[in-house]
Structure formats: structure tokens, C-alpha cells
Amino acid sequence: xxxxPSSDIAMAxxxxxxxxxxxxxxxxxxxxxxxxxxxxxxxxxxxxxxFAAIAAKMGNGIWxxxxxxxxxxxxxxxxxxxxxxxxxVGANRISNGGDEADLVxxxxxxxxxxxxxxxxxxxxxxxxxxxxxxxxxNPEIVAAYAETRDQLIDQGFDLHExxxxxxxxxxxxxxxxxxxxxxxxxxxxIYSMDMKMAREQVSFIFRKKSExxxxxxxxxxxxxxxxxxANIAFxxxxxxxxxxxxxxxxxxxxSLALGVMASxxxxxxxxxxxxxxxxxxxxxxxxxxxxxxxxxxEDEIAACAFAIGASxxxxxxxxxxxxxxxxxxxxxxxxxxxxxxPLVVINVQRGGPSTGQPTKGEQSDLLTACFGSHGDAPxxxxxxxxxxxxxxxxxxxxxxAEAFHMVVVVLTDANLATAQQPFTRPQFSEGWVAASVDQxxxxxxxxxxEWDGRTGLARRLVPGQPHGMHCLTGLAHDRNxxxxxxxxxxxxxxxxxxxxxxxxQKTLKIPDVFGGDDGDLLIVGWGSSRGAIEEAVxxxxxxxxxxxxxxxxFIQPLPSGLKEIFQxxxxxxxxxxxxxxxxxSELIDDNNRRFSSLALILRSRYLVDIDCWGEVKGQxxxxxxxxxxxxxxxxxxxxxxxxxxx
Amino acid sequence: xxxxxxxxxxxxxxxxxxxxxxxxxxxxxxxxxxxxxAILTAMQRLCRDERLRREKTVFVSGIGCSSRFPHYMNTYxxxxxxxxxxxxxxxxxxxxxxxxxxxxxxxxxxCSIGTAHWIHAIRxxxxxxxxxxxxxxxxxxxxxxxxxxxTGLKSNTSPRGTQLQPINPLSVTLGVANASFVAQAVDxxxxxxxxxxxxxxxxxxxxxxxxxxxxxxxxxALFEQAVTDPAKILLLSHENGLQISTELSKVYRNQxxxxxxxxxxxxxxxAVTEPIPVGILxxxxxxxxxxxxxxPDKLGTPEMVKSALNEEFDKFTIWPSE
Lengths: 646, 322
Description:
The complex is a heterodimer.
Chain A lengths: L7 H6 L12 E3 L2 E8 L5 H15 L2 E7 L15 E8 L10 E6 L3 H8 L3 E10 L8 H16 L3 E5 L1 H5 L10 H12 L4 H11 L5 H21 L3 E3 L9 E2 L3 H12 L3 E4 L6 H10 L6 E4 L3 H14 L3 E5 L1 H6 L1 H10 L3 E7 L16 H6 L8 E4 L3 H18 L2 E7 H5 L4 E2 L46 E3 L13 H19 L7 E2 L4 E8 L3 H13 L4 E6 L1 E3 L5 H6 L1 E7 L21 H10 L4 E3 L9 H11 L13
Parallel strand pairs in A: 1-8, 2-5, 5-6, 6-7, 10-11, 10-12, 12-13, 13-15, 14-15, 19-20, 19-22, 22-23
Antiparallel strand pairs in A: 2-4, 3-4, 9-16, 14-21, 18-20
Chain B lengths: L4 H7 L23 H16 L6 E5 L14 E4 L5 H11 L4 E7 H7 L1 H10 L3 E7 L2 E2 L5 E2 L23 H7 L5 E6 L3 H13 L3 E7 L11 H5 L4 E5 L8 H6 L3 E3 L5 H9 L4 E8 L6 H4 L8 H15 E2 L4
Parallel strand pairs in B: 1-2, 1-3, 3-4, 4-8, 7-8, 9-10, 9-11
Antiparallel strand pairs in B: 5-6, 7-11
């Protein structure tokens, strides 16, 4: 978005000449994507999150994305060490991280390079860069700074060199601590934020610190604000509508943990793994308030087995992990399937295979979730698509697990794990909480698995119940849980375990189509990409295109009615962040093309020629990219060429 | 097995005694002469004598010959995954401290595929009785060397004899900080086997009993000398340990008064494999137990969930401004 007065270029080349604009014109925007970047530990993340919270408080729509280096202490001033936050602020509700950044604040020039290479910066966007490096004692740093600065200017970026350090040192001895609040003040000025709310939010984030610390941060906030008011020529306003209801602002993993609490589950067994672990961190802090416990097991397998043991003897338990840990749990998941033990397994997906991209999101575990574990192991697979969905899905997953005595796999990913989006504060309902475990005596002669021939469901027997004694086993077993030696028994057990999925399927609603009921193209998605897909569909529909989308929450079992929906569109394609072979590749043809996961599942079930598009770049799918895919698929100008193969 | 009318009547009282048959589910399918039979009998005696409520008792096992054990007990049972009996048992015990939890595991199950769980289970020190049925061989998969197979043992995977030193389960257990009960028994001295598992059951904490168990099918000669020659056995007796009857003392003259509080001597005893030490090597009733230091001290109610959630929501709420 080109919104900057051209006179600012002069400021960039003369950093120490402070041009005081006589009168600023405040430009009204519908939205902006802002990035705050620093070395790890300089507080850009806190700055960005606080800014987003203030915006949310004012009634703006927000979506924040953490920019996290893979290492704990990456070298200072390094490309891979960029740490910070992307904040998309809008006048209306925001459902995803958006496209390239409109304005970037960087604490050094190196952290910009990685973002530039990742094409995360909008061409010509505004960059506010700390200028202290131009006078560093180390000539190499001075040279590196000058080189990048000049390149950015040459490439047409609207670069402003800002004496952040110098200004901070007027107020504090160590600018490293507090520069982020100075930057927050600058952002507050640029985006015309309510300074009372900003001060309140700063007080809130430092509420556990001393009054002196809060005061120092207020001083820096005000200093940043004043400096920007006096020295930055542009000023924006993103209109906000006052929120009517109380909103919760948390990231996806915290939302999951709150949902776990709300569901009445009381045991979470886990082993540390990125990006799942932050959910357990938060849960460890609060779970005891509801009699819950987070058990850090010795390994992923033990975590799953522990949860299975807890679930077998009590309320449904939970294990949470990411890709590699999910692979390790497969045998134990099969045991829970075989023994019909309720279990919730959360997989916060990351880039794979192997160690892959631990801090980056991907949607590559769908097939493993559906078909993982040896043998036929029917289990429920559902995917969450927003921060709010993370919360409520935990309650749904626990309920299904307990009602059907099944494993429920909940797929989320690194993108949702660290993203923040406000949602309406939930109103507690008693129905969320798991009931106490039945310890009543059973009728004499109760069988361990009294399978219902129609639904496959059987009463669940819990240790402590008289007359329920049996030996649960992972071996093929009969209705009394006795090891099967008869050839019919295995067939019978398999049938009943499989039927439960059909019984659940009959309760699922036909999902809503976003956009129009019929048309030229239907995009099908699942998981974290919902906001980006729907935004791309909205943009396309604004162009007059007959494009709609469908987002699936349940992937195993799939709800009824999908084939009928697909038939109402000329073309159907999935958009998902996992691998598919591009038809552009020389060797790829219809005989060997590997499809994206959901496309593969839908093609095999519905015999519909469903195409797919996806990227595995470790970034959330962008609405702009999906928009270009849509145009490409419809052979329109401005479309992605790679998709025009049909 | 369908509970009989007699069983029904007996269930009415916690304190009423069940005959041993009430703890038997079916005829075990172990080989004739298998040491597991003796362990099963000792356990069923223990259940009867301790008047354990069958519905309040869970036997958890892994995979292997010995892990069939829970199928033969007329209690709750959990025959799970190879090597993973301990974490399953931990999950059960954490949520249900009211249950009597026993674990049956073999030398392959515990000392090979499940080693990590074993080490950590010792460290967690949760209240459960763990029987390591150690026959020094993989039986169910047909005679492969196990980590406790003596050096030189010929098996289907070591046709020229094993080359490596075996793992010593007693030394390993005693090497983990927070070990709280370590004993060794042999299947062919039923009196001491019974006494040992009884002491293990009464110990509050993780009670680890290694039981040398004969496998007449695959390694019939392995414990032959120890069975026939009492000099190959060292009985550990103490007022805090096992009580050796005069009859047994006449046969097993090789005895040592060993106080189970003495950790250093326990390690020395554990390290010697001939003569085979039998008795309680170590007991520390003060070792911190997982349930005392880690477990929640309250049961959640919907009211608690509501208030805790609201408390947490407050931290993250943006209230509409006035």
C-alpha cells in the first residue's frame, strides 16, 4: 500500500536531521500489516503483542503471528535470528495473518534480510530502522548496515533511519531493555492509538514487576510517542468499532489449554516438543486449580501410555505432541483403539518429515492421523481452524472420545499455536465438564464388550466396578475380552470398532459453504488456513468470480452431503499446506502425481476429480497467494501460472 | 468367567474372605513346568490373604509369556504393549490411588524394550508392586537371547553364544536415585516368593521384585544347578527383611543377615550373581513418592472448573469500554 509522502525519502538519507512536519495528515486505512523485528531477547515480540492487544481493546480486528528463531540464543545481528511479531490490524474482523507487510520496524538491518528473502515485505513498504549501527565502533558493522540500507533504498523501500537507541538512552541506562516500549510508543503515534489504553496495557504486562519498572516503561512509551509525533511525517488511523462483548485474546495453544480445562479432562501426559509444548506450559500453571495434572513423561510413548492408563481407569485423558512425537505414539494409539479406551491426542503440526521445521507450521500429518498405527485402527480426526475453535474443540473431542470410546485426534499447527485473534469470552456451561466415572456395580454376567450390532458401541467398564472384571488386551479379543482363537472373533471385533465411526458420522452436520451455493470453483480446506481461504474467496467474489469454499472440521469421519456440494461446482480443489507434485514438473503426470492429503482422501471417497494446491514454505498460506491460485485455476489474468494445468 | 452365586454373596463385604478360586479366571496356558505358574499361585494366595477386593485390583502387563498373567487373574487386568506396562500402570495409579496396582513384566519387556520406563518408574516411586519375571530368554517369540541372558547362552539369535555381559536388573534398580524397594526371589522356593511379594505389596512405593523364573521349554538347564544345589543360593534374612523358617534354614544354610536399610551392602550383594541372593536387598520407606509430591490434592468439580476458567479468562479479557 503506497501511503507515504515522498518527502520522507529525504529523512532516510539524513538520519540526524530531524524534520518536524508542520502538520500531519492522518490517513484512514482499512487495515495494515505491521512487523516488529529484533534480535532474540530485545523484546520485539512483547512490543508486537502489546500493540495488538491495544488495537483489540480499541475494537480493531487483529491477528498476530510470532516470528520465532529456531535457536534459543541465535547470534546477534543475524539473518536467521530475527525474532518478533507480525500484527495485522483491521477495521473489521481479521481471520488470518494477511499478505506482505506494509510497515516494518527493525532493531537492526540484518533481521530485515531474512524477511525480505522470504518475500514477507510488500514492495516499497515503509521500514523504520534503528540507525545506531551507522556509527558502530566495528567498521564491519558500519559497512554491513550501509550496504543493506542502500540496497533497501535502491529497491524502492521507504526507509527511515530512526535514532531509537539514542532517544532511549535519554531515559534509561541500558537501551536494550526498553527499546521495545519506545517502539510501541512510536507505533502508537503512527497508528493514532489511544494512549490511555496503551499505558494501561503496559501497566498490565508489567504487573508482576515493581512500580519503578512500570514507570520506566511508561516513560519510554511516552518518549517513543512524542518522538514519532514530532519526527515522523505520516500518521494513520484504522477505524475501530467498539466491541460489544468481552473478548479473550490468547494464542492457539493457550486456547487449547483453556479448552482442556473447560472439558473436565484432568490428565495431560506430554513430553517436551516444539511447537506443542507451550500449551503444556500454560496448562502446568493452571491445571491444578481444577484437580488436573500435567505429567511430563520420560518419552512420547510413555506420555501416550500414561494417558491411556489414566483414561482406562478414569475420565478421558489427553496427550499433546507435534509431528515426531505423534509418530512415536502410533503403537499406543492403536492399543487405545483396540481396547476402546477414550483418548484425546492433540498434534500441533510442524514441518516434516523427520525433525523438519520445528517452529514452522505445516498440514502434513493428516494422512498419518487418519491412517496411522498398524492394522485397521479407526479413529476420529478433527482439525481446528481458528483460535476460538481451539477452545471449543477440546470440549467436543473429549465428549466424542467418551461417548464413542474412541481415540480423537485433534490437528492444529504451529501457525495457530502462536497466532492471536480475539474471540468472544466463553460463557461457562456445566455440560462442558466430563461426568464423574461410573463406579456402580454392574449386572451379574456383564461382558467386557457388549457391542451393539448397529452402532458398534458397548458399555465402558472401569476398574472399581464390581462384576466388570476383565482383562483388557491389545490382542484380538471376544466380547469377554478373552484372547481370540476363533477365526470369526477378529472379524467381529473389527466390524464393531469400525461401526462406531459410522455412528458418529450420522451425527455430523453438513458443513456450510462459504460464498455461493454453486459456481465455477469450490476451494476445500481444513485447519488453520480457513481465514486465508475465505478471505481469498471474498476477494475473488468481489471480482465477480463464482468461487466458494468449504472448510472441514471432521475429516474422519467426513460429514454427509459433500458429494452433492462438489457436484454443484464445475471444479473443486483443495488448498492445504502440505506437499503435492506440480504438473509443471517434467516427470509428473496423471499416473504419478502425488496429491495433497485432503485431496487424496476426497478423491478416493467421492470419485470426483479434485485438484489441489499447497505450499510448504513454513509460512501460513497467504490470502493473496490463494487469490492468485483461484484466478489461475479459472484461467484469468493475474493468476498463478503453475495451477493452469487442466 | 461368570461370577458365581457364591462370589456374589462374598462381594457384599469388603472384609469377607474370598477363596483362592475366586481370584482365578481360567487355566493358564503356560508350558508345563513354567515358573510363571508358581508366581501366579503365590499372587493368588496373596490376594486371598490380603482380602483384596477384586474390582479394586488391577494387573498391568506388557507383552511376552509372563505378560499373559493378568488374563489369569479374576480381577481387572490390562495386557498392553511390549515394554509399556509401567507408564500405563502409572497413569492408572495417578488417577486412581484407591486401586491396588500390580505390574507383570518380563526381562525383554522391562530390561530391553521398556528400559527407559523402568528407570523412570523407579524414580517416580509410585505405589505399585512390580514383578520382573526373569527367565533370561525371550519365550513367546521362540528363544532369542534377552538382555539378562548369561554370557555364552546359545539361542536363535546367538547360535554361537551371546558375547555381551548381561544387564543386572538389581544393580540397575539400585543405581537409580529414589529406589525404594528392591528384592529378588526364585520361583522354586514358594515360601520366600510369597513372603517377598507380600512385603513388596505392603511397601508404600515402587516395589521391584526380580523373580528368577524357569523356562523349561527353551533354557531348561539354566537354573538347574541353583534348583538342585542349595549352596548356589544366598538367603538374605533380617528382622526388617525376610523371616527364614527353620525348615528352610536346614536346606539353605548359605545365609546372610542383611539389613535392607543398608544401601551399600545391597549394591554389593546385587553385584554377585553366584550364589544367587534371595530376599529383600533394599527398602527405603522415606523415598519421596510421586503421589505425595506431584499429584493434585483435590478432585475437580464443575464449580471449580467454572471459577478457575473465569479467573483465567479475566487475565486475557478485553472488556468493552464504557
